[in-house]
Specification:
heterodimer; A: 6-stranded mixed beta sheet; 4-stranded antiparallel beta sheet; B: mainly alpha; two-stranded antiparallel ribbon; globular
């Protein structure tokens, strides 16, 4: 049984579907990249998984259970964490409050201590308002917030979108380290090459469906994938 | 020559009522995302039910509790019956619906309590002089009660889990939901707090002035002004702007007279918004 199983997923924000039959799986312990051109439906897929897409049809199973009818807060309670693209922290709340606000955490104080140890930059400024943090610090807080409830799956929507080029490599290292927290990762990313480099497998979306899929190393060395979807920006 | 310290003191007392109403409005706006025009009439309901309780029992404390519960109950009912059904629609739909709710509340109060002015049975007390400012013990008691209520609300918002969740929803509703915050619990807390604050504000205003069907409605414009002036969605800003507005209104009376003091308040609002469109304490919106 896959941790996440998606079959023939369709949907969007209104009458027009953006997802046109996406099928993918994610196994426990994996990091999987979902890449694709602008408008391919990557972020829409992330929203569909966490319950923020208004119109969705198809199969969406998490740990063998259908979750399509569940609201976002119950999907989170089932074990799905989410880091949105840009607005990923509560700006008027302090760092500590951003962590405290997460619902359903058994031993909140101990868990917060673990995460502040794991993200020392946050521990130093624990009373600072999240709105005053730099892009890199915000992202660390977003990761810590999503990890608070010890999810089994983290969905990351363009985690490097709001970062300076200097911070991008750090962000991918952070993603690579996530399975150490017992988390599997689905990362939707524009910087496909760098993301695949830290992933086990990858899917490339085009026009709202899967155009290519396979082991990350195979996709990285595939000429068609490189010329059509991944670009020639290795090392950037 | 006018006694400006006296005007400032009067303005602060008046400003506390505006602050409470503005706080109720800004809380609803930041979480339910619409300007609730029924806030004034929820205040009126609190004033009447508080008066009825005080008449029946002689207890002002009990009257305050009943006023708070009345405001909370009416607001919860309005949410269940009207506002919730309009969630996700245009803001103007909820605004117009709240005006309708306001008229319904006022009509029910008119039928129940009549249209004549009523007063709380409060013993008359002699004003005392404090550093050149004349204040009655009632002024101080009402101001103290209002200040205590405001402190309590801010305590709830900043020191309790549900308060943090309310602030999180105000910041970003979707992010709050994917963080496990249950919106129905937050909405329940919102309407209980917002309605309770409005109900108590109405009772306090009724004690200070007279109880009549227009009591809360007449407070609505200054309260909206304070909510906007403070930066819509900012509870601290609403309270600060309410106090400021009360003082500006009172300070203007020697120059423009009692009848035009509201116009001065609006001139101040326009001036501030031209200088700082997001209000005194509001978040500056930017384009990424």
């Amino acid at each position: 049984m896959s941790l996440l199983e998606i079959a023939d997923l369709r949907g969007g924000y209104g009458e027009v579907d953006i997802l046109n039959g996406v099928s993918l799986t994610l196994e426990a312990g994996e990091i999987v990249t979902v890449a694709g051109t602008n408008g391919a439906g990557k972020s829409t897929l992330a929203k569909a998984i966490v319950g923020l897409l208004p119109v969705v049809r198809g199969v969406l199973n998490f740990e063998g259970q259908g979750i399509l009818g569940l609201p976002p807060e119950l999907r989170m309670a089932r074990g799905i964490g989410y880091v949105p693209q840009v607005a990923n922290v509560f700006p008027s709340l302090s760092i500590v409050e951003n962590l405290q606000v997460v619902g359903g955490v058994a031993n909140q104080k101990a868990r917060m201590g673990e995460l502040l140890d794991a993200f020392p930059a946050l521990a130093q400024r624990r009373r600072a308002r999240a709105g005053s943090l730099s892009g890199g610090e915000r992202q660390q807080l977003a990761f810590a917030r999503a990890l608070m409830a010890s999810p089994r799956l983290m969905v990351l929507d363009e985690p490097t979108a709001a970062l300076s080029p200097k911070m991008v490599a750090d962000a991918f290292e952070r993603i690579r380290a996530l399975p150490r927290f017992g988390v599997s990762v689905l990362v939707v990313e524009q910087r496909a090459r760098q993301s695949l480099a830290v992933s086990d497998r990858g899917y490339i979306l085009d026009g709202g469906k899967v155009a290519m899929s396979g082991a990350a190393s195979a996709l990285l060395s595939d000429d068609r994938a490189a010329s059509l979807y991944l670009g020639r920006h290795a090392g950037r | 020559m006018s006694n400006f310290p006296q005007l400032i003191a009067n303005g602060l007392v008046q400003g506390l009522f505006i602050a409470m109403a503005a706080l109720a409005i800004t809380l609803a706006f930041s979480i339910a995302r619409f300007p609730n025009a029924a806030t004034g009439d929820v205040m009126t309901a609190g004033a009447y039910t508080g008066l009825a309780t005080q008449s029946a029992t002689g207890s002002l404390i009990l009257a305050g509790i009943v006023a708070i519960f009345t405001g909370a109950a009416i607001s919860l009912a309005a949410d269940r019956l009207v506002f919730r059904k309009l969630a996700g629609r245009a803001v103007v739909a909820s605004l117009v619906a709240s005006i309708g709710v306001a008229f319904v509340i006022r009509a029910v109060l008119g039928v129940t309590f009549g249209l004549s002015q009523l007063v709380y049975d409060i013993p008359l007390t002699r004003a005392k002089l404090y550093w050149g400012v004349r204040l009655t013990p009632l002024d101080l008691q009402v101001a103290g009660a209002v200040a205590l209520a405001l402190a309590l609300v801010f305590g709830i918002l900043h020191l309790t889990p549900i308060g943090r969740q309310m602030r999180a929803v105000a910041d970003d509703r979707d992010l709050a939901r994917v963080s496990g915050v249950r919106p129905e619990r937050v909405m329940l807390a919102l309407w209980m707090i917002s309605g309770g604050v409005a109900g108590l504000a109405g009772m306090m205003l009724g004690i200070k002035t007279v109880v009549e069907p227009e009591l809360g409605w007449s407070m609505l414009l200054p309260a909206f002004t304070a909510a906007i002036l403070g930066g819509i969605g900012s509870p601290g800003g609403a309270v600060a702007a309410g106090l400021l507005l009360g003082v500006v209104q009172e300070m203007s009376t020697p120059f423009v007279g009692f009848n035009y003091k509201l116009a001065i308040a609006f001139a101040a609002l326009l001036g501030v918004l031209l200088w700082r469109p997001s209000g005194l304490f509001g978040k500056r919106e930017g384009v990424r």
